[in-house]
Amino acid sequence: MNWLRGVRGFQVEVFESREDIREAKIVGGRSINLALSHRGRQALSRVGMEEKIVSMGIPVHSRMIHSLNGKQSPIPYGKKGQYILSVDRANLNKALLTEAERYANTKMNFDHKLQDWNSDTGLMTFLSNESRQVDLIVACDGAFSAIRKQFLRRNRFNYSQTYIPHGYMELTIPPTNGGEFAMKPNFLHIWPRNTFMMIALPNLDKTFTCTLFMPFDVFEKITTGNELIDFFQTYFPDALPLIGVDALKRDFFHLPAQAMVSVKCSPHHIDDKCVLMGDAAHAVVPFYGQGMNAGFEDCIVFDEIMDQLNEDFNPKNSTRRLLLCFGFLKMRAHVNSKWFLFRKKVDNFLHFLLPKTIVPLYTMASVTFTRIRYHEASQRWQWQNKVINQGLLVCAAGTVLGGSYLLIKQTPKIPSIPLEKIWDRLQVLKVWQ
Questions:
Q1: With 70 as the cut, is the pLDDT of residue 327 above it?
Q2: Which residues lie below 8 Å from residue 133, measured CB to CB, with a gap of 6+?
């Protein structure tokens, strides 16, 4: 965000509560890999960073579904040549900070944790006893935004947060002894197990970042190393030797499972004093890979609004949250369904025949090869889903009726026997008796 402001010539100060991650020995925060797609790349392109960030990522063309029996089945995201990028979160943040510092009118302030701010005067007070008075605050301080607390004190501010019953935990698949990827690298590997799942995304150092998503009560039932190994041998038998028994025990019990929250609020601004952006405005669960991309798109929208002098800061966040929760259900359960795989083939075939009329949901709203609005994607998907399902029902009914007609028509006729001949045969049988 501060690039767009810096490029425009404003005096910008960035306040970060943590230390400079480029100098930190241990980088805290979330570890789930980022999936960079069209929305995010458009924002990076505007500040000349797309090529650099793309070079830091690994193209991911398809999902790779790992069944319990060890079978692996690829499911492409979109059309041939379309892909998302697996990007390491820490490396991305470091590159963005370094680029932001290139602007003379941008100042970085680390270890500045906000204590309070006044929405009327713009006075910000930090725990270090420093203070700043500013004209506009752009709050990109995450799902538990300190800036947003002031919004809660105001009338007619709507806010809700929702935790899903699943937590997540990071694991790692190291390179092979020969220094190569342990699995095919250009895939999002998914182990769907109905109520829980594990995913793995590739990194440039030939490792895979694995993320285990499970209900908290399942995490809590695993209390010993033997229980953990038994669990993985039951549900993730092909992943266990890749992770390694010792590494699995160490990483699993190192930290507890982390929670995932979605946030919805409105309005997203207080007059011309402050605006919420990114997770501070619309935190989402990660299952469609849209958190970072939606945050980057906020920057594009803000930039466009500044051009148009339009103060509409109220995107359609409830729809985004519904799409992402559906994405979790699809990843952990639907990808194992034969009906889901059949429908995906039907959708892709219809998209090939009618590219402007039928567009698969993932192409519209997620992997996100467009910037179509989330609520429009949801509405279009619901219409398409209804039309295609009704069409399939009509085709099935037509097939049954047509097959029945042909069966009746082609059934060979049984020659009729006169009643006199039947009577004569019965008499013969009677004589034999």
A1: no
A2: 121, 122, 123, 124
